[in-house]
Write a structure and sequence with these properties.
With about 150 residues, the protein is an alpha+beta fold. The protein folds into two domains: about 1-70, FAD/NAD(P)-binding domain (3-Layer(bba) Sandwich), CATH 3.50.50.60; about 80-153, no CATH class. About 25% of the residues lie in helices and about 15% in strands. The protein contains three helices and seven strands, in the order H-E-H-E-E-E-E-E-E-H. It has helices at about 1-10, 25-35, 130-150, and strands at about 20, 45, 50-55, 60-65, 70, 105, 110. The strands form three sheets. It has a three-stranded antiparallel beta sheet, with no helix packed on it. Helix 2 links the parallel strand 1 (about 20) and strand 2 (about 45). The longest helix is centred in the C-terminal third of the chain and has 21 residues, at about 130-150. The termini are far apart.
Length: about 150
Amino acid sequence: MAQQHLTRLAHSLAQTVTIYTSANEALTNELERKVERDEWCPINSRPILRLTPTSGIAVLVEMEDGTSVEQGFLVHMCKDSQNFGFEHNLNLELAATDSESKISLPFNEVTGQGVFAAGDAGSMMKSGMLAQGSGSVTAVGVATNMVCDEKAV
């Protein structure tokens, strides 16, 4: 579950990490089971009214019940999807999620020969560190492909 991974990444920057689910009961129940042993990770399921910037770096999280909490920073997991439409031109096959190309490890070659997906496009988890690592590994795959391809110049 991506929320759990982001929470652990954020914990390297803060002593406590609060997960806000904004009244999503199913998500709250699922996460409570997964982080129940982590005392540093409370879950706040109250509906969020708005996020307001402060004069500094912090963000004010205002709840519908009138209470508010100031947080030092926020980590957000947005829903993402690739802007496909070109996949038929490259003979790409989509993964089961339909939001990523189907890739073969370790070099992230997609189903079209000589076509690679690097960074966020080649990973379900969107993280800067993972994207950099993925890009480095994919670069090795591209170089190897060029050396092995008889048509390469």
